[in-house]
């Protein structure tokens, strides 16, 4: 658009410059020719995507601009609000820089080729499928002492709960599966009997009762209140990499000597043991010493 | 290049050291890069090294914590101690054969402080001059250490 054309279209909006476009003034709208004040600055779009027009078209026709919540400053990420049948709000991110879609619901991103409308439909279906899981997890989050994850995302379908002073339980929900999967971690003397109770109570989960009532029925003792433990009280982190989840695996290899009970990731522990000369190996099983208490520790690599 | 495992772990350690320093005798001076830190230690009260300030340099290998960090005294001032050579090399088992990923940079500092604290006589190691001449500025991890003196 050149100066003359710009002036013809917006006579009350004198541009300070056309490239990049910068203008401040008024434009007339409606039949009664009301004026509104406009200041405009062209945003420098670092990356232009061939998908802009397609997404805009989809927003016009199908998704609806009402649902578009925000754009980031560089016009690279558009956030869309998706409200599911249970009135839960989910954010969908349309990322023009990497040309993909992602969301709170699903960790994996999907290429823009897929189409926004189609992606939203997939998410809606997923919401439907996960509604029961989320209801259970919301109940868990509000009534039990959750150690991990600290700020759970909708895509995270697991919780690490405090069970007692030394033990924690991993609760995982699976869509379409009636009851959550529970595994107790901690020193052997505490965890083993509790895991036996979990095994014994298989199929007893009562969907009509709260998560707390169900778990207390399984373990047969009251569980800690929310906030009564924090992460530091119960050893959850791998003693080698110091993180909790790595490559989607829990630090679930626990040193079996009682006061130690240090957790490790399988991979980290195998890596450490293979560096030690006193480790013995038989097929894919390693017999070595715990780096914390020096007692025997056994791990099988996957 | 640090691996994902070592990056994550070093971030944790660094964070911890900045937020909750173990004592007023251990202070992080700099971390130009994630794998090279300088930490000041101050000799504990009522010991031979009381109030003396020394600087430890930590270099973390790419596969830390599977491998131990390289730790030496740097700066003008190296403590005179039977297990510390005048080029800054430290004869301490946990830095070499006895390393375990259960240890952290912070734990190493505390160990070195306690090594200073338990010393009863400030004297250099035997044959310090020969060792220093031979190793110069090479990494102490290249030395094959013998740990036979448990007294200090």
TrEMBL record, chain A:
**Which residue numbers delimit the RING-type domain?**
238-294
Task: Please name the InterPro entries in this protein's record.
Answer: Fancl, FANCL_C, FANCL_d2, FANCL_d3, FANCL_d3_sf, UBQ-conjugating_enzyme/RWD, Znf_RING, Znf_RING/FYVE/PHD
MF terms (GO), sorted A to Z? ubiquitin protein ligase activity; zinc ion binding
Q: Which UniProt keywords apply?
A: Metal-binding, Zinc, Zinc-finger
PROSITE patterns reported in the protein's UniProt record: ZF_RING_2 (PS50089)
Q: What GO cellular-component annotations does this UniProt entry give?
A: Fanconi anaemia nuclear complex
One Pfam family, please name it.
FANCL_d3
- From the UniProt record, give one GO term of the biological process aspect: interstrand cross-link repair
> Which PANTHER family does its entry note?
E3 UBIQUITIN-PROTEIN LIGASE FANCL, UBIQUITIN LIGASE PROTEIN PHF9 FANCONI ANEMIA GROUP L PROTEIN
Name of the protein described by the UniProt record: RING-type domain-containing protein
Source species, please?
Answer: Coemansia spiralis
TrEMBL record, chain B:
Tell me where on the tree of life, at the top rank, the source sits. Eukaryota
> Which SMART domains does the UniProt record give?
UBCc
Specify whether Acyltransferase is a keyword of the entry.
no
Q: What is this protein called?
A: UBC core domain-containing protein
Q: Name one Pfam family in it.
A: UQ_con
The record's annotation in PROSITE patterns points to:
UBC_2
Swiss-Prot/TrEMBL keywords:
Ubl conjugation pathway
The answer on whether this UniProt entry bears the keyword Membrane reads no
Q: Where is the UBC core domain?
A: 5-152
CDD domains for the chain: UBCc_UBE2W
